[in-house]
Structure formats: C-alpha cells, structure tokens
Write a sequence for this structure.
C-alpha cells in the first residue's frame, strides 16, 4: 500500500548548516504519526522541507505517488499539504476571520470558503467569538486554535502540525488537543504532529517516532515507547509523568 | 621568492613597486593634454571613490551622502584659498578635508541606530539639503548655480604640460598612499572590526567591539579623503558646481565601485578605469553612456556581484585549484 | 484668510497626488521589502504617454489614463523581473535591500536615458485632462485639471484599499507583507505576486504621471522630483504602512502648500528634507511604522 507521505534519506538545513541528516519516515494514509525530539534536532526543519518552505539538500519526499521534494511551497500547498507552523504564522494585522479565509486561498477552496468558515466556527466556538479581532490581540491559546482553524479551511491530504502545545498553559493545551482530535475524526487526513515531549500525545498518536540529531532513532506505538524506561527518562525525567 | 613582508609576499611587493614606477613615469612619455586632462580628472574621481568604497563597501554603511561631503571639502578649501590667501593651497585642501571629516563624523552618529534603508534615506536627505542650500547660496559661499569662483589652484604659474604632470603626480601619490592605507587598515583591527560589524553586528558587539567608535573613525577617515578629493577637484578644474553632487555623478560613481568590486582594495581603481574608458569612447553620446552604464550596473550586480576583482579572485582560485589537482594527479601518477 | 484657504486647497491637491505616487512605494516595500527607486521613472513614463496620447493623437483623456496605467504596469512588472526577482533566491549571499536599491536605481537611470534617446532632452507640453479653472474663494482658484487629479487619486487609492480589504488577491498581498512563509504555505504564488504588485504600484505612479505632466511638462528627468517627494512621504508615514503613507502624503502636501504660500518655493524641498532628517533621527519609523523595522 502506498504511504500517504514518504520521506526517504532527507538531508536538509539552512545555508551550510545541516540539521536533518538522512531522515526516513513513512506515514500510512489516515494515520497520525507523532515525532518527538529535543529542540534543535530537526523537527521543524523536517516539516519545513516537507511543505516546501525550505528546499531539501538531498533525499526524496513523496506524497502518495508523486514526488514533491524540490517543488515550491505554493504548489505543494495546492496538492493538499497543510502546514500549521510553529509560532502560528498568523497574519498579525488581519482579523481572525480574515486569517481563516486566507486558509482557503487555494483556488479550489476559495469559492466554498463561506460554507467552510461556518463549519470551522461550529467546531471552534472560541474562534468564532473572536472573529473580528486582530490576530495580534489574541492570547497564545486562542492563536493556536485560530492556526488550527485556518488549517481546517481546506481539505488536507497531509496535515503537518508543529508543536501545538508550545508555550501554552495546560488548560489551553487541552483545548488545542481536543481540536486536533476533532480534526482527525472529521477529515481523515494523514497527520504528522511534532512535539517536544510525551504529555498529551497519547490520545492522538497512532505511531510515535523519536528524532535525535537529525534522524529517526526509534519508532513504535505510544504504549511501547512509554513503557520503555530509557525513552521515558530521557524525555520525561521519570515514569510517573506519563499520562495516557 | 616567497618571503613575506607585512602580509604580502616579496613577489607581490615587486609587482606593486614596478606598477608604481610605471605609473610615475607615464606622463614623461605621454603628453597629449586632452587625454592627460581626462586622466587627471579620473584620478580625482578615483580618490573620491576610494573614500566612498571604504565606508560603503568595507564598513557596509549605506552612506549616500558622500558626494555632499566631497562638495563641502571643496567649498571649505575654496573659501580658505580665496579669503586666507597667505595659506598655501595644499594646506587649504587639507583643511577642507578636516572640515569634511568633521561633518562626516557628525553624520555617523544617527546612522548607528538605524537599519540600512533608513541610513540611506538619512544620508540621502542630508545630501539633498546640502545640494539645495549650496544651489541657493544664501550667503554667497558657494557660488550658487554659477559654480564656485575661480581659485588659483595648486600650480598657478606653470605651463600646461608641467601642471598636468604636477597634478598627475600629486594625485597619483595620494591614490597610492590611500590604497596602501586602506589595504593596511583592512587587515588591521579596525578593518576586521568594520567587516564584522557589517556582516554580523550582534556578534561583534558581543565580542566587545565598540561599534560607535569604529564607525565614527571609518566615517572620519573616508570624510577626510572625500574632502581632500573635493579640494583637488576645485584646484584642478578651477570650478565646482552643485551638479557635482547630483544623482548623475552619484550613479556613475556607484557604477564604478560596483563594476570594480565593492569593498575590495583595487576595486575602485579598476572600476574607475573601466568606466572612464567607456565614457571617453562615448564622449559624443552622453545618452548612450548612461544607458550602457545603467545596463552594466544591473548586469554586474545580479550576475557578478563581486565586480571585476571578485571575478578575478574567483577565477584565480579555480585556476589554482585546477593546477593543484593537476599536480596532485601528476604526483599520484609518479608514485 | 485667503492664505489659509489657498494652503488648504493646494495642500489637499498636492497631498492627493503624493498619496498616489507614494502609496505604490509603500505597497512595494510592504510586500517585497525593497525601496523601489524606479518609481519616479514610472511617473516620467506616464507623462510621456500623456503627451503622446493627448498632444499628438488627441485621444480621449480617460483612455490616456488607462493607457498610462497599462504601459507602466507592464514596465513595472518587467522591472521587477529584471532587477529584483533574480536576487530573491540569493538572500543569504547578498545584502538584499541594498542591492535592490541599486538595481532599481539602475533601472531608473536606464529608463531616463532611453527616454532621452527617444524623445530628446526638451520638455514636452502635456495638455491638461480638463481645462478651465474654478474660483474657490477670493482670488484662490483651482484648475479643473488639479481637481480631477485629486479626485482620480482619491478614487484610485480607495480602489486599492477595497482591493486589499475585500478580494482574494488583495488578501494575498497583505498576507505576504505580514508573514511571507505563512502565505507561501497557504498556497500564495509569490513568484507571480511580486511582479504583479510592482506592476500595480508602478501603474498608479504612471497615472499620476499623466496628471503631473500637464503641470510640470514631460521630460526624461520628470521623475526625479516625484521620486524624492515620494521618499519623503514614505519615510514620514512609516515604511510599509499604507495608512501612514496616506496621512503623511496630506501632511507633506499641506507643508508644501504652507511653504509655498508663506516662505517661497525655493526653500520648500530643503525644509522638507530637513524635516526628514530630524524624523529619521528621532522617530525613524515615522507616523505609523513599527519600531522594529527601523531600529537595530
């Protein structure tokens, strides 16, 4: 069965610094792969390479049976790759509604944008309540939800989510993950979710990969890895912090 | 011969020495006044370009007010020549240089806090103000739109051949001296500091380099040289109009710097030479001159950003690598 | 009292035309992050189109404006493709902003000299769009041409505002200005957006050029002054801020009118430039720009 997303031997970085070294990852259609790893080891770089915002130095990236490495970010977006960026990437001076509408920019989605907007508002009432506010006035958790909402404004074959819990208070994180769960349920998209630690991912992960110094060093199900002492101690400090 | 002296090999020094000797002997064999005048004028422009290259290319500061500073040097020197007739012309020119240096230093301070584009706007506006004030000449200091009144110049009583030679040598000496100074500065603490600040200001500040002093010094030195160039221009051409500070000369000078290689030591020399040749060939077609220069500027900036000097150093590196590969292959074959 | 009316009337007229020319520069800075030094040339080209259409071919004035729009749109797009686009992929190597300052400047020189070659150095008379004057107040009159100029400028700026606030591509332009990578990840084709934006900005200046041609003649250097004036407005308003540019345009217009009426035309520009100098030292981000853009 062709994987929805296949990354093979990816090497990527910035200028002359290589961050991702020989990274290989395969995600089955409709499944959620969570990539865990310490900061600076290449999680964001990997996602940027997949969505085309940076050009891979070598390796292949395949979407279905089509190669997308080397394509422009805009054409990759047109093929159904949705990238929900770290730090949200919201348009600070645009209102929440305008941000959401931009999510439907791709020409095939633009015509039906009002309809899609209604659905997203129904799913995320918090976002609707802030619809006319400028993005820069929102709290961290609200922005995260708007970012997710914007990602939901067009049909996604593959959704890339970069550290959704970054910088948020626990209550906000719960809301964010609830939204992600809803997203998975409704769209059936293939998701690659990147996080720095284990907390919260148990509910969404179909498979977990551990990324260190630029490549995937271990893979397994959430239960497998969370029962492995070495993994847990590296990423959590102690067994008692693991939540399912 | 591969001994080193002040960072350059003896061969290099011999080459430089012979070049200097050739340059010095040139006017003894060539005396056509028309072309000599063009060459001497080009020398003054070159001095200005060397000063501008220092602050624009090496220090990386978007200073578009250099021509106004050049003009102020001319006006300063001229005023002294006309009103302090006891002062030898050369001293007046040096004083003009000091005046320019002072103004240039003042200009340095606000630029320290601003990003590139804003610095260019700041210095550009400064240049515009100077140009307008000089043009309207409220106190009869600059000659307004008629240009500066005639001054005696450096060599008032010589025949044409003689004074052409005299100016040529004086300017050539200044050019050689400034090139050497710039080359020395480049690998001195100041030069390294300037380039660091240009390339990564945060890091440099973290390393304890004081950007304010460094930039002030850079502005001061380049202002001094520009002012002296202004005084030279006034003495030689016997006039100075406000159009000397305008957009056209500025574009031409930028083209010279970029073609030669912005930020390099020999860049201004090569660039000024090439553009002067083009201008001389096309002297009857001013429209074509500027069109060709504009097009060349565009092409060079996009395709050969290092200018001629950059191109040469890249080619010589490639040749060097290729030669090494060859000699490695020969060695490998011999073992 | 006559003075005040004269200042207000003239100030509003100047402000409108400054707005039209400067708003293009702001648009370009906002999206491409460059100072487009060829914008003055677009005004110059507009002037020549106006002369060609109105003086030599007696074309309908509205058509002349449309023609100027189209011609400068094309030239602006080509300028971007030639002098900016090749440098975009190489942002790491070269100081992008400085180099594009020089390249767009070089294009400006080229255009000026092509015009010089083709049309010769002498000024050409451009007939006004509408002739006749309107008396506003004792001795203060305004020509219908200036009135139309102000009206069309306001109309075009309003249209631009609507375009940006309501249309898909308008959203895209704003998105690119605010977060380039986010816009790209949403599918905005920036390599097509950039030339089109520069084309649009140039076209606005071109239309302005037709009007200005009647006031200041068409000549190869007709773009120099508008460029300098646009720079003043754009800095005062805050680079990248459209509303800032709008306020600044009218402020500068009023300042110029004030200087002309009270002090005399010779000193207007140096005073304006000195004002810029002071602003750049005290508050470089202008009226409505953001401090992080200007200060190190």
């Amino acid at each position: 069965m062709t994987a929805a997303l296949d990354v093979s031997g990816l090497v990527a970085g910035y200028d002359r610094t290589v961050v991702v070294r020989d990274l290989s990852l395969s995600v089955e259609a409709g499944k959620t792969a969570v990539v865990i790893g310490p900061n600076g080891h290449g999680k964001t770089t990997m996602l940027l390479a997949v969505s085309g915002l940076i050009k891979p130095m070598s390796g292949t990236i395949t979407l279905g049976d089509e190669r997308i490495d080397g394509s422009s970010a805009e054409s990759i977006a047109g093929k159904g790759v949705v990238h929900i960026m770290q730090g949200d990437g919201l348009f600070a001076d645009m209102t929440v509604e305008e941000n959401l509408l931009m999510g439907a920019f791709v020409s095939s989605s633009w015509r039906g944008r009002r309809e899609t907007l209604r659905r997203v508002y129904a799913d995320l009432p918090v976002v609707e309540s802030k619809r006319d506010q400028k993005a820069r006035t929102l709290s961290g958790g609200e922005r995260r939800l708007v970012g997710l909402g914007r990602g939901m404004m067009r049909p996604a074959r593959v959704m890339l989510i970069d550290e959704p819990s970054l910088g948020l208070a626990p209550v906000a994180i719960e809301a964010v993950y609830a939204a992600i769960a809803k997203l998975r349920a409704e769209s059936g998209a293939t998701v690659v979710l990147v996080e720095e630690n284990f907390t919260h991912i148990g509910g969404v992960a179909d498979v977990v990969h551990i990324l260190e110094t630029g490549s995937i060093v271990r893979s397994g199900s959430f239960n497998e890895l969370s029962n492995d002492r070495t993994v847990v101690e590296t990423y959590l400090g102690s067994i008692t912090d693991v939540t399912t | 011969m591969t001994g080193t002296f002040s960072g350059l090999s003896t061969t290099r020094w011999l080459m430089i020495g012979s070049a200097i000797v050739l340059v010095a002997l040139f006017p003894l064999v060539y005396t056509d006044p028309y072309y000599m005048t063009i060459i001497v004028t080009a020398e003054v422009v070159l001095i200005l370009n060397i000063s501008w290259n220092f602050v624009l290319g090496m220090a990386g500061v978007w200073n578009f007010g250099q021509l106004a500073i050049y003009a102020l040097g001319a006006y300063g020197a001229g005023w002294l020549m006309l009103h302090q007739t006891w002062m030898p012309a050369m001293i007046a020119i040096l004083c003009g240089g000091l005046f320019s240096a002072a103004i240039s230093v003042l200009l340095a301070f606000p630029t320290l806090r601003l990003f590139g584009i804003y610095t260019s706007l700041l210095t550009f506006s400064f240049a515009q103000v100077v140009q307008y004030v000089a043009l309207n000449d409220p106190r009869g200091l600059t000659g307004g739109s008629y240009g500066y009144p005639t001054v005696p110049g450096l060599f008032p009583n010589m025949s044409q051949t003689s004074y052409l030679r005299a100016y040529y040598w004086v300017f050539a000496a200044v050019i050689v001296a400034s090139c050497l100074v710039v080359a020395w500065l480049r690998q001195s603490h100041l030069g390294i500091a300037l380039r660091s600040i240009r390339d990564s200001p945060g890091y440099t500040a973290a390393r304890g380099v004081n950007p304010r002093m460094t930039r002030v010094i850079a502005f001061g030195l380049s202002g001094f040289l520009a002012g002296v160039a202004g005084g030279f221009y006034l003495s030689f051409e016997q006039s100075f109009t406000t159009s000397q500070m305008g957009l056209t000369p500025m574009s031409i000078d930028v083209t010279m710097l970029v073609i030669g290689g912005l930020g390099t030591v020999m860049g201004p020399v090569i660039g000024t030479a090439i553009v002067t040749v083009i201008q001389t060939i096309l002297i009857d077609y001013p429209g074509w001159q500027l069109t060709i220069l504009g097009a060349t500027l565009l092409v060079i900036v996009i395709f050969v950003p290092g200018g001629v000097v950059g191109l040469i150093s890249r080619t010589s590196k490639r040749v060097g690598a290729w030669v090494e590969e060859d000699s490695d292959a020969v060695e490998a074959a011999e073992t | 009292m006559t003075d005040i009316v004269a200042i207000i009337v003239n100030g509003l007229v100047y402000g409108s035309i400054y707005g039209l020319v400067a708003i293009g520069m702001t648009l370009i800075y906002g999206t491409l992050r460059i100072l487009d030094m060829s914008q003055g040339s677009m005004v110059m080209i507009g002037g020549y189109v106006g002369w060609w259409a109105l003086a030599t071919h007696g074309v309908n004035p509205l058509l002349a404006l449309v023609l100027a729009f189209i011609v400068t749109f094309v030239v602006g797009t080509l300028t971007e493709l030639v002098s900016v686009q090749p440098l975009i992929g190489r942002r790491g190597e070269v100081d992008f902003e400085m180099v594009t300052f020089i390249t767009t400047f070089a294009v400006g020189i080229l255009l000026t000299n092509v015009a010089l070659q083709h049309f010769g150095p002498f000024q050409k008379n451009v007939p006004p769009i509408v002739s006749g004057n309107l008396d506003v107040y004792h001795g203060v009159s305004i020509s219908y041409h200036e009135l139309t100029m102000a009206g069309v400028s306001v109309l075009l700026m309003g249209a631009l505002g609507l375009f940006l606030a309501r249309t898909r591509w308008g959203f895209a332009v704003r998105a690119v200005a605010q977060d380039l990578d986010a816009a790209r990840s949403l599918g905005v084709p920036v390599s097509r957006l950039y030339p089109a934006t520069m084309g649009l900005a140039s076209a606005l200046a071109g239309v302005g050029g037709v009007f200005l041609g009647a006031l200041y003649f068409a000549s190869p250097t007709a773009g120099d002054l508008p460029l300098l004036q646009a720079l003043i407005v754009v800095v005062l308003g805050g680079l990248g801020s459209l509303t800032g540019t709008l306020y600044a345009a009218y402020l500068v217009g009023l300042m110029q009118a004030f200087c002309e009426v009270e002090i005399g035309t010779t000193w207007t520009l140096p005073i304006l430039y000195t004002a810029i100098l002071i602003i750049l030292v005290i508050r470089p981000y202008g009226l409505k720009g953001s401090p992080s853009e200007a200060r190190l």
Observations:
- DSSP finds ten helices and ten strands in chain A.
- The radius of gyration of chain A is 17 Å.
